[in-house]
Write a structure and sequence with these properties.
Layout lengths: L3 H16 L4 H8 L3 H9 L22 H11 L9 H10 L7 H10 L22 E2 L5 E10 L6 E9 L5 E7 L4 H14 L10 E4 L8 H10 L2 E4 L9 H11 L12 H17 L11 H5 L3 H18 L17 E2 L5 H17 L1
Parallel strand pairs: 2-5, 5-6
Antiparallel strand pairs: 1-7, 2-3, 3-4
Helix pairs in contact: 1-2, 5-6, 7-8
């Protein structure tokens, strides 16, 4: 869409070049236009610009009404939604039995009102060929763990957050904060988590994946893993993104508004923050990787009923206003399996079939 001033300027340049002996096609090429375009402009008299911006466009029959747009803005500005992007507002409304518009419509309306909200989704990096494909189709089948530094206000002092994550449900099943990096802390965390999750009653113990740090591969830690019956798994050497689920979780933790940018004043402050973060993450956070249900809901097996109700709500919304739906409704099918190293579907299917055969043989 070329404004009138630009048309007149380009036509003047071409006309001047032709007076000085240039060919029309060469002059138009230098001006960045086509000779036929210049001919069309002259036919219109060069007294009007592109008429498409000012063209009368009827409002589509399925467009959001002014009341619906206003409702979107009001809901997005409610205190409970004020800090959330549309990707998490829409599923929360669906759980309450309310459907107003799609996530993309929420984004467009909020952007038009100057309220641009990012999705805040941490993408899991794609990895090269892993040594094996660990697949989880239920809780307590695949765990990953790691520790991270928590800054302290004391010079040269750090606190350490030890954390165990259930890969299938994304629930933090165990955590501790200490003032030192020690394998004894990791051993105690494993023991407490195994007791809390009831691993003693499971016929098949989880796979525990960790990196190659000295703490996670200490002799006492390996002995506890063996005593609990866990299957140890470690990242490949010199591959920094082989434990991406925990690393993404650490990023989420440290980008929370409640995380102190100047560090924690004491170990008790760090433990208090960690306790609040884990509670929020497990019970309030709607995780994008598990269809925007909370990790605690998926860990307890309530996610399928929640997603079923959301699917029914979307079917009702499509029936009420079918012109807003060109194809199918949003995919609310549960995530059946989660892999530690995402690979081709054929490998995942083969791993799932192997798990089923092992379960049947047991």
């Amino acid at each position: 869409m070329t404004p009138l001033e630009d048309r007149q300027r380009s036509a003047g340049w071409v006309e001047q070049a032709r007076r000085e002996g240039a060919r029309l096609s060469a002059a138009c090429e230098v001006a960045g236009i086509d000779a036929r375009t210049l001919q069309r402009w002259k036919h219109q008299g060069l007294h009007s610009g592109d008429r498409r911006p000012g063209a009368a466009r009827p409002t589509p029959a399925h467009a959001l009404s002014a009341a619906e747009r206003e409702q979107i803005v009001q809901i997005a500005n409610e205190p409970r939604f004020a800090e959330l992007p549309p990707a998490r507002i829409v599923p929360l409304l669906a759980d309450e039995g309310t459907y107003i518009a799609s996530e993309s419509s929420f984004s467009r309306v909020l952007k038009a009102h100057g309220q641009i909200r990012h999705r805040g989704r941490a993408k899991t990096p794609q990895r090269r060929k892993p040594p094996s494909t660990h697949v989880a189709s239920a809780p307590r089948q695949l765990w990953c763990w790691d520790l991270t530094f928590l800054a302290s206000q004391g010079l040269g002092q750090w606190f350490y957050l030890y954390l165990i994550l259930d890969v299938y449900s994304r629930k933090i099943v165990g955590f501790e904060v200490h003032a030192s990096d020690s394998s004894d802390h990791a051993v105690e965390l494993l023991r407490r988590t195994a007791l809390a999750e009831g691993l003693h009653s499971l016929p098949e113990k989880p796979v525990l994946h960790g990196d190659n740090g000295s703490t996670m591969k200490a002799t006492t830690v390996l002995a506890m893993i063996h005593w609990l019956g866990l299957k140890a798994s470690h990242s490949r050497p010199r591959v920094s993104d082989d434990n991406a689920f925990v690393e993404a979780l650490f990023r989420t933790a440290k980008y929370r508004p409640q995380y102190p940018t100047k560090g924690f004043a004491s170990l008790e402050d760090a433990r208090h923050w960690a306790s609040r973060f884990v509670s929020w993450y497990n019970h309030e956070h709607r995780h994008s990787g598990i269809r925007y249900v909370s990790p605690a809901e998926r860990h307890a097996g309530r996610d399928q009923e929640i997603l079923r109700r959301r699917h029914a709500l979307y079917l009702q919304a499509r029936t009420a206003n079918p012109r807003r739906w060109t194809r199918h409704t949003r995919n609310w099918q549960p995530i059946i399996a989660v892999t530690l190293n995402p690979e081709r579907e054929s490998l995942v299917d083969a791993a799932l079939a192997s798990q089923k055969q092992s379960a049947a043989a047991a």
